Amino acid sequence: MARQVITTLIDDLDGQPADRTVEFGIDGVNYTIDLSDANAGKLRAALDEFIKAGHRIGRGGVVRPVNRPVGRSTATSSSGRDENRAIRAWAAENGFEVSDRGRIPQEVSDAYRTAHGR
């Protein structure tokens, strides 16, 4: 049986169609947000002054804050990734449209947790 999954990005700010998923990080936390080209431009413009004054540390690398416990985040993010994989698999089997990457819609996460008694 063939299956075709179509993912539609919705701008997380205004609910209109989005053109891309933008990644950014601050204070050791990375974020993704689905945005239209216009809103992605607004985000980049808002951060431009700070980006120019800052020091690039590479793609994906983020400096760990001094007061953050070492070792705790690895277990947390690893279990979070495992749960996200499980949610995506469950969603696909239960008729929800979820992209392979990026944010999982809250209603899908809630439905998964309800189905699994969490």
From TrEMBL:
Keywords: DNA-binding
Name of the protein described by the UniProt record: Lsr2 family protein
InterPro entries (UniProt xref): E3-bd_dom_sf, Lsr2-like_dimerization, Lsr2_dim_dom, Lsr2_DNA-bd
Listed Pfam families: Lsr2 (PF11774), Lsr2_DNA-bd (PF23359)
UniProt domain Lsr2 DNA-binding: residue ranges: 80-115
Coiled coil: none
Domain Lsr2 dimerization: from-to ranges: 1-58
Region annotated Disordered, chain positions: 64-85
